[in-house]
Design a protein that fits this description.
14 helices
Length: about 475
């Protein structure tokens, strides 16, 4: 046996032994329990934050149900555009969360201060085009030959919503920075405060309570603006007077701004913002497709879609926690921990949504009856469709949960362009044509649309998992 072969054999055995020892260490019960505790510390407050926002949306819907038909129609047109713009901003700012998490894991305060500075500049700059788009909504609506009442109501409503853009943007960037630094309890408290203030001021201003003038639809915009501004002031004060944030620079300094860093932040954040719009646009298209099968099926679709949104609201908290944990370990150059983080958070996500999966799959009739009375004949038709859709939603939310949690991991790895391309593939190249084929060519109706969405999301989940494994295997 040659000397070179012996050296190769010893070296190869050493590498194998080292790899096996590292695997034993990474997947030891102690390490699994450690990662489980770390993830749960983030997941629980972040899920609570998302549930606060869900309660706020439900409360706003209840308030809107008591205004006039013209106001409801106007809100349906304006609010869809407004919330899409906000989601785009949230998507862009999620890149800030990932970058801060990496610097926090590396204990790089100076790096975090640079990101904070660029982040504040980004939201201020973003507020300008977003405000302009909202300002132009009434003009755009007038081009579509809408009812004159809607056009008349849209103008003051849009003007009131513009006032919320800057404080809301600033609040969102503070939230993402705090999440990146694992200060999730603070985010939980701030989100709860914002929702409470928002519901209070919207209620007071819409209906003219406690001596205030009755503003109707415009009161929604002013209520959101006041609540966001008050929460922003409280957030700034709590940060300023807390010793925990000593050494961090929580202000915009133009002298520290760098066009190269700023442009890098935009390039990294834009795909995430675009991803939100890509996915939201397909669900809107699915609703339009459903409308071709009648109002009863469309009503059932809207009901099960809201059930799905509620589940995904919870999953989004797990997604954010995954981004933070992955970012921390990337910043700490501990790439061997990344797969365990994803598996732990996938397990947490599955356990959290399991009761809803069971409810949707095995007891759809009870949920349908709860949402709609069973007396009227038209409600019985809606319930019939809901019972058909909910088992599909049960499977879909598991697959979508996997996809979103892995996307959270890819965000932590700064792999944002691939995330956007994957959304285009899953939703528009796979899901849309299959949904159309099943629904209109094979005549499977509404079930075909949901089945097509399920197949597209499944492709997206597989591609995301494959991409994550590729990145981790090539970084180890």
């Amino acid at each position: 046996m040659s000397l070179s072969y012996k050296v190769f054999s010893i070296k190869n055995n050493f590498i194998t032994y080292t790899f096996l020892e590292k695997m034993k260490l990474n997947y030891s019960s102690a390490n699994i329990l450690f990662e489980l505790r770390q993830s749960l510390k983030l997941v629980i407050p972040l899920i609570g934050t998302q549930l606060f926002y869900a309660v706020g949306n439900i409360g706003s819907t209840i308030i809107l149900a008591h205004v006039g038909a013209g106001e409801l129609a106007t809100n349906a047109l304006v609010w869809g555009i407004y919330i899409t713009l906000i989601l785009f901003v949230m998507g862009m700012l999620s890149s800030v969360c990932a970058l801060v998490a990496q610097k926090h894991g590396a204990r790089d305060k100076q790096g975090i201060n640079i990101i904070i500075n660029q982040g504040f500049l980004l939201v201020i700059v973003l507020a300008i085009p977003i405000s302009l788009i909202i300002w132009l909504i009434p003009t755009i609506v007038s081009w579509t030959n809408q009812d004159p009442i809607i056009i008349k109501l849209a103008k003051p409503y849009c003007h009131s919503l513009i006032l919320s853009i800057l404080p809301l943007n600033l609040l969102l960037i503070i939230e993402q920075i705090l999440i990146g630094m694992s200060a999730v309890r603070t985010v939980f408290l701030l989100s709860g405060l914002k929702v409470i203030l928002e519901l209070f001021f919207v209620y007071v201003l819409v209906f003219g309570k406690y001596g205030f003038s009755k503003l109707g639809l415009v009161g929604i915009g002013y209520g959101i603006s006041i609540a966001a501004s008050c929460t922003l002031i409280i957030a700034i004060c709590s940060i300023y007077y807390s010793k925990k944030w000593d050494g961090y620079c929580w202000r915009l300094s133009l002298s520290q701004c760098s066009f190269k860093r700023f442009w890098g932040l935009i390039k990294q954040g834009f795909p995430l913002g675009a991803m939100c719009c890509i996915e939201l646009s397909l669900f809107s298209t699915a609703a339009f497709m459903m409308s071709h099968f009648g109002i009863f099926l469309l009503a059932a679709h809207q009901f099960v879609y809201q059930c799905l949104v509620f589940t995904l609201t919870i999953i989004f908290g797990v997604l954010q926690a995954t981004t933070v944990r992955i970012g921390n370990e990337v910043g700490n150059n501990n790439f061997s921990q990344l797969k365990l983080i994803v598996w732990i958070n996938l397990g947490i996500g599955f356990c959290v949504i399991l009761p809803l999966v069971m409810l949707y799959f095995f007891f759809p009739q009870y949920l349908a009856a709860f949402g709609f009375g069973t007396q009227a004949l038209e409600n019985q038709l809606v319930i019939k469709y809901i019972k058909k859709f909910l088992p599909l939603i049960a499977v879909l939310q598991i697959v979508e949960g996997v996809r979103l949690i892995v996307i959270g991991a890819l965000r932590g790895l700064n792999d944002t362009k691939v995330i956007m391309y994957n959304s285009i593939l899953a939703f528009w190249i796979v899901a849309f044509p299959i949904s159309y084929l099943l629904a209109f060519v094979l005549h499977w109706g509404g079930a075909g649309i949901w089945l097509g969405l399920l197949m597209g999301i499944m492709v997206g989940a597989i591609v995301s998992l494959t991409r994550f494994n590729f990145l981790v295997n090539n970084s180890s």
